[in-house]
Design brief:
77 residues, transmembrane, mainly alpha
Length: 77
């Protein structure tokens, strides 16, 4: 179960990191992909998505690191 949790956290970190880079490179991807303009074109939705993705990427990366340390400590004992 712990290995699965580690890999889920790593995958979540990588995916949110990629989406974060996508948001930086192509700000209008929300409008293009979903066909809606939630912020009326002023860019505030993109910045909110950027912040949420940044927190998600860093948070899941930290959780994966904690899980990795727990797994390696359990294997060494």
């Amino acid at each position: 179960m712990s290995k699965l949790r580690f890999w889920v956290e790593v995958a979540l970190s990588v995916l949110s990191g990629l989406a974060l880079v996508l948001t930086l490179v192509w700000e209008e991807w929300i409008e293009e992909v979903f066909g809606v303009e939630p912020d009326g074109g002023d860019g505030s939705a993109e910045w909110l998505v950027f912040l949420v993705l940044a927190v998600l990427a860093v948070g899941s990366g930290v959780l994966a690191r904690v899980e990795w340390r727990r797994l390696t400590a359990a294997g060494a004992a």
